[in-house]
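Feature request disguised as a bug report, sorry. It would help if multi-protein outputs had a clear separator. Right now it looks like this:
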Amino acid sequence: MIRFLTAALAGLAFLVPATIASAQPMALTPDVNDPWLVQLFPGQQRPAFTPPRTTRFFLFGKPSNQPPTTLTPEPVQLRAPGGASQGRQIDPRFLPLTVAYATRERPGTIVIDTNQRYLYLIQENGRAMRYGVGVGRPGFEWAGVHKVTRKAEWPDWTPPAEMLQRQPGLPRFMKGGPNNPLGARALYLGSTLYRIHGSNEPWTIGHAVSSGCIRMRNEDVIELYGRVGVGTKVMVI
């Protein structure tokens, strides 16, 4: 008999793992009317079973029952050096525009009207690309004809001695970049210290504010830079 029971138990040992492996997952929420529960709680109110809650993981913050918040970007304001907000918008009339322009100058010539604060890139058929510019403030106006002698992307800035005398607090050298006063591009005019260049102060376009250079919005000077080459004739009137 003992040998028989031993053999039977050994057989069950092989069957149990197979049964477990083939078993279906147990229901997590039993039926409250299950006969087993009725026997455990005869004539009594049987316990209620609440389905388990799904766990959610949040990398940032805790779960919330509140609806998602829509984030609205803050309006971008132009800021002057020192952090003071100018609160100004560029006058729309100084934005780029193709216009009719009667001239005897050849296509590809640059004409800068310092009184009107416009730069014209002459096109074919009596047309021109017109850009708003900032020009020399009173006492720094000039006129003349030059050629573009050099082009530079994100140029470095070395203030000339005359400017350092007027503004001793200026840096002696500034590496090119978004905070550089020469902006994204520069077109050097002849052997002068004057340039057509971008600006980190776009709100000044349309005004007489510079020390004689012609300043443009960065996006406009980048476009102009791509349209003209070294040797381009530049007339400042």
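(second protein starts here, but nothing in the output says so)
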Amino acid sequence: MTTRRGFVSGLALAALSAPSRARAQQAVKVPRVGFLGSGSPAETEPRLEAFQHGLRALGYVEGQNIAFEYRWSEGTIERLPDLAVELVRLKVDVIVATSSPAALAARNATRTIPIVFVTAADPVGSGLVASVARPGGNVTGLSLLAPEIVGRQLQLLKETVPKASRVAVLSNPASSYSALLVTETETAARSLGVRVKFFGVRGADGLDSTFSAITNERPAALFVLFDPLFFVHRRRTAEFANKNRLPAMYPHREFAEVGGLMAYGSDLRDNFRRAATYADKILKGARPADLPVEQPTKFELIINLKAAKALGLTITPALLQRADEVIQ
């Protein structure tokens, strides 16, 4: 039987323990992920959803056991350093950077907060990591293998437009990996007997003048190198090529989805999904220095038949059979 004295003592103990339990619950730290985007929320949405889906599969629920801080440069690379500093000041637990420029901005802002890059064209050459196997420092992530597939992209363009002897190449000299992509393009062009002329553009405000310069050269085709600038303005780029009847090769499916003729490259959504695994490992104590850079193993060829028809091109059955997706 419980005595009155025992009952009162129990209440007193419960009252004393309640604040400590509340304090313990408040002390549980919810990790915060800083998301540094080179583009805008709207154009990044499908890939951001893939990243969030990857985290949910690992048990993370926003608002319960994980929080996000988003910063977007809206396609203006010059804004990335200040946005990276903002995330560092917020003391996030890990920064997920959508591109090489974003990752470089984050690394320049902190050498202690872990950084995961999602789409690095040349992580070693751009100085993000010491090596693919052992990144070192506070940065790791996923590579696009962009330099290694440039030759394949140009070959597919030449196969689509066999008479294309002069090709305009759209590049961004401001990018850390630009020189490597240019070298790879020149090597591939020589092997294919194609003459290439590079047109560099460093920002969105230079696109129109660059497009005019390309038009004046009257090339037979357009080859767009990988860069966040062109990805953000992919619809604008594809519309320019189609309006000027320029068959074009683009680096990712998203270009073909907005009207571009064809694209060959890695699946960006898959990269974002896999980036969630890196964030999870780091939040559980892994060091970026010990997490090897992942390289894509799956590449996809997307052909837009509607664009081909508008350009007056006939895509061979052999090429269509090799396509991973044909947009009608």
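Even a blank line would do. Unrelated, but nice: The chain has two domains: 32-144+267-298, 146-266+300-327.
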